[in-house]
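user: can you give me the structure for this one chain? C-alpha coordinates are fine.
assistant: on it. calling the predictor now.
[tool input]
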Amino acid sequence: MRTNFYPGMDSVQGVKLDFFDENSLRMIDYASMEVLKSPGIQVSDPEARQIFKDAGCDVDEASQVVKIPEYLVRKALSTAPSSFKLFGRDKKNTVKMEHKGKVHYTCFGTGIQMCNYLGDGKYETVDSTDEDLANTAKMVDWADNIDYFSLAVSARDWAGKGAQDVHEMFTALTNTSKHFQHIDPVGENVDYYWDMAVAYYGDEKEARDKPLFSMLVCPTSPLELSASGCQVIIKGARYGIPVNVLSMAMSGASSPIYLASTLVTHNAEVLSGIVLSQLAAPGAPVWYGSSTTAFDVKRGTAPVGSPELGMISAAVAKLGQYYGLPTFVAGI
Protein backbone atom coordinates (compact mmCIF):
# COMPACT_ATOMS: atom_id res chain seq x y z
CA MET A 1 0.00 0.00 0.00
CA ARG A 2 1.21 3.49 -0.86
CA THR A 3 2.40 5.72 2.02
CA ASN A 4 2.22 9.49 2.20
CA PHE A 5 2.75 12.31 4.69
CA TYR A 6 0.20 13.43 7.25
CA PRO A 7 -0.86 17.11 7.01
CA GLY A 8 -0.53 19.46 9.96
CA MET A 9 1.87 17.28 11.96
CA ASP A 10 4.27 19.27 14.13
CA SER A 11 7.09 16.91 13.22
CA VAL A 12 6.78 17.79 9.51
CA GLN A 13 8.26 21.10 8.37
CA GLY A 14 6.03 23.20 6.16
CA VAL A 15 3.31 25.83 6.04
CA LYS A 16 0.11 25.43 8.01
CA LEU A 17 -2.95 27.42 6.95
CA ASP A 18 -5.58 27.36 9.67
CA PHE A 19 -8.54 29.70 9.16
CA PHE A 20 -10.95 28.58 11.86
CA ASP A 21 -11.12 27.76 15.50
CA GLU A 22 -13.75 25.41 16.88
CA ASN A 23 -16.28 28.20 17.49
CA SER A 24 -16.03 29.48 13.91
CA LEU A 25 -16.59 25.99 12.53
CA ARG A 26 -19.58 25.56 14.78
CA MET A 27 -21.09 28.81 13.47
CA ILE A 28 -20.79 27.60 9.86
CA ASP A 29 -22.24 24.25 10.89
CA TYR A 30 -25.25 25.83 12.63
CA ALA A 31 -25.92 28.13 9.68
CA SER A 32 -25.77 25.15 7.31
CA MET A 33 -28.30 23.26 9.42
CA GLU A 34 -30.65 26.23 9.11
CA VAL A 35 -30.27 26.20 5.31
CA LEU A 36 -30.97 22.46 5.14
CA LYS A 37 -34.10 22.96 7.23
CA SER A 38 -35.26 26.08 5.38
CA PRO A 39 -35.21 26.74 2.44
CA GLY A 40 -34.01 23.13 2.04
CA ILE A 41 -32.59 21.31 -0.99
CA GLN A 42 -34.22 20.76 -4.37
CA VAL A 43 -34.05 17.02 -5.05
CA SER A 44 -34.83 16.27 -8.69
CA ASP A 45 -35.00 12.47 -8.43
CA PRO A 46 -38.30 10.87 -7.27
CA GLU A 47 -36.58 7.84 -5.68
CA ALA A 48 -34.31 10.11 -3.67
CA ARG A 49 -37.27 12.23 -2.55
CA GLN A 50 -39.02 9.08 -1.35
CA ILE A 51 -35.92 8.02 0.59
CA PHE A 52 -35.83 11.42 2.30
CA LYS A 53 -39.58 11.28 2.97
CA ASP A 54 -39.39 7.81 4.49
CA ALA A 55 -36.63 9.08 6.81
CA GLY A 56 -38.88 11.86 8.14
CA CYS A 57 -38.01 14.83 5.92
CA ASP A 58 -40.60 17.38 4.84
CA VAL A 59 -40.95 16.83 1.07
CA ASP A 60 -42.87 19.13 -1.28
CA GLU A 61 -43.50 17.17 -4.49
CA ALA A 62 -44.67 20.24 -6.40
CA SER A 63 -41.44 22.18 -5.87
CA GLN A 64 -39.29 19.05 -5.31
CA VAL A 65 -37.84 20.75 -2.22
CA VAL A 66 -36.72 18.55 0.67
CA LYS A 67 -36.23 20.01 4.14
CA ILE A 68 -33.70 17.97 6.10
CA PRO A 69 -33.87 18.14 9.91
CA GLU A 70 -30.65 18.45 11.87
CA TYR A 71 -30.99 15.09 13.63
CA LEU A 72 -30.85 13.27 10.26
CA VAL A 73 -27.67 15.10 9.32
CA ARG A 74 -26.06 14.20 12.65
CA LYS A 75 -27.12 10.57 12.27
CA ALA A 76 -25.68 10.41 8.74
CA LEU A 77 -22.38 11.86 9.93
CA SER A 78 -22.25 9.24 12.66
CA THR A 79 -22.55 6.35 10.17
CA ALA A 80 -20.30 7.74 7.40
CA PRO A 81 -16.86 6.09 7.78
CA SER A 82 -13.85 8.16 8.82
CA SER A 83 -11.58 6.08 6.57
CA PHE A 84 -11.77 3.66 3.65
CA LYS A 85 -9.42 2.16 1.08
CA LEU A 86 -9.21 2.64 -2.69
CA PHE A 87 -7.92 -0.37 -4.61
CA GLY A 88 -6.28 -0.64 -8.01
CA ARG A 89 -5.56 -3.64 -10.20
CA ASP A 90 -2.09 -3.71 -8.63
CA LYS A 91 -2.39 -4.09 -4.85
CA LYS A 92 0.73 -1.95 -4.29
CA ASN A 93 -1.34 1.02 -5.48
CA THR A 94 -3.88 0.71 -2.66
CA VAL A 95 -4.42 4.05 -0.92
CA LYS A 96 -6.25 4.80 2.30
CA MET A 97 -8.51 7.82 2.64
CA GLU A 98 -8.55 9.03 6.24
CA HIS A 99 -10.09 11.69 8.43
CA LYS A 100 -7.16 13.96 9.28
CA GLY A 101 -5.16 11.42 7.36
CA LYS A 102 -2.37 11.37 4.85
CA VAL A 103 -2.33 13.61 1.79
CA HIS A 104 -2.94 11.89 -1.54
CA TYR A 105 -2.85 13.37 -5.02
CA THR A 106 -4.82 12.76 -8.20
CA CYS A 107 -4.92 14.44 -11.59
CA PHE A 108 -7.38 17.19 -12.50
CA GLY A 109 -10.32 16.67 -14.87
CA THR A 110 -12.40 16.44 -16.87
CA GLY A 111 -10.89 18.25 -19.88
CA ILE A 112 -12.50 18.19 -23.30
CA GLN A 113 -9.50 19.27 -25.40
CA MET A 114 -5.84 18.40 -25.85
CA CYS A 115 -2.99 20.71 -26.77
CA ASN A 116 -0.78 19.05 -29.38
CA TYR A 117 2.65 20.63 -29.69
CA LEU A 118 3.92 20.86 -33.26
CA GLY A 119 7.41 22.26 -32.62
CA ASP A 120 8.90 25.74 -33.14
CA GLY A 121 6.56 27.13 -30.48
CA LYS A 122 3.47 26.10 -32.45
CA TYR A 123 0.58 24.00 -31.21
CA GLU A 124 -2.97 23.04 -32.03
CA THR A 125 -5.92 22.57 -29.70
CA VAL A 126 -8.23 19.72 -30.63
CA ASP A 127 -11.04 17.72 -29.02
CA SER A 128 -9.75 14.97 -26.76
CA THR A 129 -10.22 11.37 -27.87
CA ASP A 130 -10.35 7.88 -26.46
CA GLU A 131 -6.65 7.53 -27.29
CA ASP A 132 -5.87 10.68 -25.30
CA LEU A 133 -7.77 9.22 -22.33
CA ALA A 134 -5.76 6.00 -22.55
CA ASN A 135 -2.49 7.94 -22.76
CA THR A 136 -3.29 10.10 -19.71
CA ALA A 137 -4.18 6.96 -17.76
CA LYS A 138 -0.82 5.43 -18.68
CA MET A 139 0.97 8.65 -17.69
CA VAL A 140 -0.67 8.65 -14.26
CA ASP A 141 0.15 4.95 -13.90
CA TRP A 142 3.81 5.84 -14.43
CA ALA A 143 3.87 8.89 -12.14
CA ASP A 144 4.81 7.88 -8.60
CA ASN A 145 3.59 11.18 -7.14
CA ILE A 146 -0.01 10.65 -8.32
CA ASP A 147 -1.87 8.18 -6.15
CA TYR A 148 -4.95 7.41 -8.23
CA PHE A 149 -6.34 8.28 -11.65
CA SER A 150 -9.27 10.62 -12.14
CA LEU A 151 -10.90 10.95 -15.55
CA ALA A 152 -8.52 13.51 -17.03
CA VAL A 153 -10.06 14.04 -20.48
CA SER A 154 -13.26 13.03 -22.20
CA ALA A 155 -13.40 10.62 -25.14
CA ARG A 156 -15.08 13.14 -27.42
CA ASP A 157 -14.88 10.79 -30.39
CA TRP A 158 -17.49 8.69 -28.58
CA ALA A 159 -19.88 11.62 -28.04
CA GLY A 160 -23.31 10.93 -29.49
CA LYS A 161 -22.60 7.24 -30.02
CA GLY A 162 -24.24 6.22 -26.74
CA ALA A 163 -22.83 5.27 -23.34
CA GLN A 164 -19.74 7.48 -23.68
CA ASP A 165 -19.27 7.39 -19.91
CA VAL A 166 -19.30 3.57 -19.90
CA HIS A 167 -16.65 3.43 -22.62
CA GLU A 168 -14.52 5.96 -20.69
CA MET A 169 -14.80 3.71 -17.65
CA PHE A 170 -13.52 0.72 -19.63
CA THR A 171 -10.66 2.66 -21.23
CA ALA A 172 -9.52 4.03 -17.87
CA LEU A 173 -9.61 0.70 -16.06
CA THR A 174 -7.68 -1.09 -18.80
CA ASN A 175 -4.91 1.52 -19.01
CA THR A 176 -3.99 2.06 -15.37
CA SER A 177 -3.24 -0.31 -12.52
CA LYS A 178 -4.18 2.42 -10.04
CA HIS A 179 -7.60 3.17 -8.61
CA PHE A 180 -9.91 5.06 -11.00
CA GLN A 181 -12.27 7.86 -10.02
CA HIS A 182 -15.00 8.47 -12.60
CA ILE A 183 -15.61 12.22 -12.62
CA ASP A 184 -18.46 12.14 -15.16
CA PRO A 185 -20.66 9.22 -14.06
CA VAL A 186 -24.23 8.92 -15.32
CA GLY A 187 -26.76 7.64 -12.82
CA GLU A 188 -28.57 5.25 -15.15
CA ASN A 189 -25.25 3.63 -16.17
CA VAL A 190 -23.73 2.94 -12.74
CA ASP A 191 -24.93 -0.66 -13.00
CA TYR A 192 -22.69 -1.13 -16.05
CA TYR A 193 -19.68 0.27 -14.18
CA TRP A 194 -20.40 -2.19 -11.40
CA ASP A 195 -20.64 -5.09 -13.86
CA MET A 196 -17.11 -4.27 -15.07
CA ALA A 197 -15.71 -4.41 -11.53
CA VAL A 198 -17.49 -7.70 -10.82
CA ALA A 199 -16.26 -9.13 -14.13
CA TYR A 200 -12.68 -8.16 -13.26
CA TYR A 201 -12.79 -9.83 -9.85
CA GLY A 202 -15.11 -12.63 -10.88
CA ASP A 203 -16.82 -12.24 -7.53
CA GLU A 204 -19.32 -9.66 -6.27
CA LYS A 205 -18.13 -9.81 -2.66
CA GLU A 206 -14.54 -9.07 -3.66
CA ALA A 207 -15.75 -6.20 -5.84
CA ARG A 208 -17.46 -4.74 -2.75
CA ASP A 209 -14.52 -5.38 -0.43
CA LYS A 210 -11.93 -3.95 -2.85
CA PRO A 211 -13.54 -1.08 -4.78
CA LEU A 212 -11.65 -0.78 -8.07
CA PHE A 213 -13.25 2.56 -8.88
CA SER A 214 -15.06 5.42 -7.21
CA MET A 215 -17.33 8.19 -8.47
CA LEU A 216 -17.49 11.95 -8.15
CA VAL A 217 -20.84 13.73 -8.18
CA CYS A 218 -21.54 17.46 -8.00
CA PRO A 219 -24.63 19.05 -6.48
CA THR A 220 -25.97 21.78 -8.76
CA SER A 221 -25.37 25.11 -7.08
CA PRO A 222 -27.29 26.64 -5.55
CA LEU A 223 -28.82 23.91 -3.42
CA GLU A 224 -29.91 21.17 -5.83
CA LEU A 225 -29.26 17.45 -6.15
CA SER A 226 -29.85 16.51 -9.80
CA ALA A 227 -31.70 13.35 -10.85
CA SER A 228 -28.53 11.75 -12.23
CA GLY A 229 -26.49 12.84 -9.23
CA CYS A 230 -28.99 11.29 -6.83
CA GLN A 231 -28.83 7.98 -8.68
CA VAL A 232 -25.03 8.02 -8.58
CA ILE A 233 -25.15 8.55 -4.82
CA ILE A 234 -27.86 5.94 -4.18
CA LYS A 235 -26.39 3.22 -6.40
CA GLY A 236 -22.86 3.96 -5.23
CA ALA A 237 -23.94 3.56 -1.62
CA ARG A 238 -25.78 0.30 -2.27
CA TYR A 239 -22.90 -1.22 -4.24
CA GLY A 240 -20.28 -0.04 -1.75
CA ILE A 241 -18.63 2.22 -4.35
CA PRO A 242 -16.96 5.27 -2.70
CA VAL A 243 -18.66 8.50 -3.77
CA ASN A 244 -17.06 11.94 -3.71
CA VAL A 245 -19.83 14.49 -3.03
CA LEU A 246 -18.18 17.61 -4.37
CA SER A 247 -19.70 21.09 -4.64
CA MET A 248 -18.51 23.39 -7.43
CA ALA A 249 -20.17 26.58 -6.20
CA MET A 250 -18.90 29.87 -7.61
CA SER A 251 -18.80 32.72 -5.12
CA GLY A 252 -20.48 35.71 -6.72
CA ALA A 253 -22.41 33.64 -9.28
CA SER A 254 -24.05 30.43 -8.05
CA SER A 255 -23.37 31.20 -4.38
CA PRO A 256 -23.07 34.36 -2.24
CA ILE A 257 -20.22 36.73 -3.03
CA TYR A 258 -18.94 36.58 0.55
CA LEU A 259 -16.67 33.56 1.00
CA ALA A 260 -18.03 32.75 4.46
CA SER A 261 -21.57 32.64 3.06
CA THR A 262 -20.40 30.50 0.15
CA LEU A 263 -19.01 28.03 2.68
CA VAL A 264 -22.48 27.74 4.22
CA THR A 265 -24.28 26.90 0.96
CA HIS A 266 -21.38 24.69 -0.12
CA ASN A 267 -21.59 22.84 3.18
CA ALA A 268 -25.35 22.37 2.91
CA GLU A 269 -25.02 20.95 -0.63
CA VAL A 270 -22.34 18.44 0.32
CA LEU A 271 -24.09 17.40 3.53
CA SER A 272 -27.36 16.79 1.66
CA GLY A 273 -25.57 14.32 -0.63
CA ILE A 274 -23.90 12.62 2.33
CA VAL A 275 -27.26 12.28 4.10
CA LEU A 276 -28.77 10.66 0.98
CA SER A 277 -25.84 8.25 0.81
CA GLN A 278 -26.22 7.18 4.42
CA LEU A 279 -30.00 6.85 4.16
CA ALA A 280 -29.55 4.58 1.12
CA ALA A 281 -26.91 2.44 2.85
CA PRO A 282 -25.59 3.38 6.32
CA GLY A 283 -21.82 3.13 6.42
CA ALA A 284 -21.36 3.80 2.71
CA PRO A 285 -17.92 5.37 2.00
CA VAL A 286 -18.08 9.07 1.05
CA TRP A 287 -15.76 12.04 0.67
CA TYR A 288 -16.49 15.59 1.74
CA GLY A 289 -15.48 17.27 -1.53
CA SER A 290 -14.87 20.73 -2.96
CA SER A 291 -13.96 22.41 -6.20
CA THR A 292 -15.64 25.61 -5.07
CA THR A 293 -14.01 28.86 -6.15
CA ALA A 294 -14.82 32.51 -6.83
CA PHE A 295 -16.45 33.66 -10.06
CA ASP A 296 -14.31 35.97 -12.21
CA VAL A 297 -16.88 38.64 -13.07
CA LYS A 298 -14.54 40.32 -15.58
CA ARG A 299 -13.84 37.25 -17.70
CA GLY A 300 -16.89 35.17 -16.89
CA THR A 301 -14.85 32.16 -15.78
CA ALA A 302 -14.33 30.00 -12.69
CA PRO A 303 -10.58 30.29 -12.02
CA VAL A 304 -9.31 27.13 -10.34
CA GLY A 305 -5.89 28.67 -9.76
CA SER A 306 -7.14 31.76 -7.90
CA PRO A 307 -6.17 32.73 -4.35
CA GLU A 308 -9.84 32.44 -3.41
CA LEU A 309 -9.88 28.77 -4.36
CA GLY A 310 -6.89 28.17 -2.10
CA MET A 311 -8.62 29.95 0.76
CA ILE A 312 -11.87 28.04 0.21
CA SER A 313 -10.04 24.72 -0.09
CA ALA A 314 -8.22 25.32 3.19
CA ALA A 315 -11.53 26.18 4.86
CA VAL A 316 -13.31 23.17 3.35
CA ALA A 317 -10.53 20.84 4.49
CA LYS A 318 -11.12 22.10 8.01
CA LEU A 319 -14.87 21.49 7.69
CA GLY A 320 -14.31 17.94 6.44
CA GLN A 321 -12.07 17.24 9.41
CA TYR A 322 -14.67 18.82 11.72
CA TYR A 323 -17.20 16.26 10.50
CA GLY A 324 -14.73 13.38 10.69
CA LEU A 325 -14.76 12.61 6.96
CA PRO A 326 -12.05 12.03 4.35
CA THR A 327 -11.80 15.32 2.47
CA PHE A 328 -11.10 16.14 -1.18
CA VAL A 329 -10.19 19.65 -2.35
CA ALA A 330 -9.33 21.03 -5.75
CA GLY A 331 -6.25 22.95 -6.80
CA ILE A 332 -3.64 23.30 -9.50
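assistant: here you go. DSSP finds ten helices and 16 strands in the chain. The chain has a mean pLDDT of 90.
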